[in-house]
Amino acid sequence: GRTALVIHGGAGFVPKESLSAADEKEYRATLRLALDAGNAVLQRGGPAIDAVEASIRVLEESPRFNAGKGAVFNAKGGHELDAAIMEGHTLRAGAVAGVTTVRSPIKLARAVMEHSPHVMLAGPGAEAFADTQKDIERVPNSWFDTPMRRRQLEEAQRKEAEQKAAVIEGDDGNVRRYLG
Amino acid sequence: TVGAVALDKAGHIAAGTSTGGMTNKRWGRVGDSPIIGAGTWADDRCGVSGTGWGEYYIRTNAARDICARVEYRGDSLQAAADEVINRIIPAMGGDGGAIALDRDGNIAMPFNSGSMFRAWIRPDGSSGVAIHE
Description:
The structure holds two protein chains of two kinds. Chain A has helices at residues 21-43, 48-61, 105-115, 123-131, 147-168, and strands spanning 4-12, 81-87, 92-99, 120-122. Chain A is of the alpha+beta class.
């Protein structure tokens, strides 16, 4: 049995010159750590789904990536986290949307898959399901905060306000932009 | 957004995705990540985790579309992933990337947004980490 693993930490417009050498080194080291965590599972004969969870949990714990600790802020200044996991040979799947107090959303998604008849639970329903599960760690919503994400929210809201002002000043009303 | 796709020694594939969504998103907005078939998919020959403008991944059923192309048409994983991520989604106005893995251990990592943080280990043991390149 040959194994393989691929992971990502998000795609976006991150110009190379915007990353300091130290930042880039940190990003690469964390990706390598996540890769190693998943690959360790595979090398000892563990199932693919364990490898996926192991890799993602490393990235969820890192403040540099937009999942778990370090997740972006929503327009209300809080965090709503989503996750899904799927097992190919059985087509079993589990997902959660809009959870606010679950430290590892991927772990809760897997619990939905393994311990409920459902595929997806959202918001308060997902939180209530988490209440029934052992080993689902809970944290205050502010635990996900990071200064970098706070700055990004402030910048996004400043731009949004500027765009709204531009529309009021006589735009053609056909602005292609995304406001969440 | 973060994600992972794995192939184990039994030949089984799994995929997962976790995200905080988009900065300044409207509260209650759900992106593609938890939508099975849009941002996350795995079957017995292919797995995908996406990252990008979620509404487009939902509307194109992006992750499942990649694997369906492999399953129904016999497309290579690379061709299927490139078609969905780098042609169909941008043609609609979306952007982003995805990681994909098939049961032979082939890996595809297309993206069209300038960068995608990613890492991989192939069946031959070769591995890498990349951001922009």
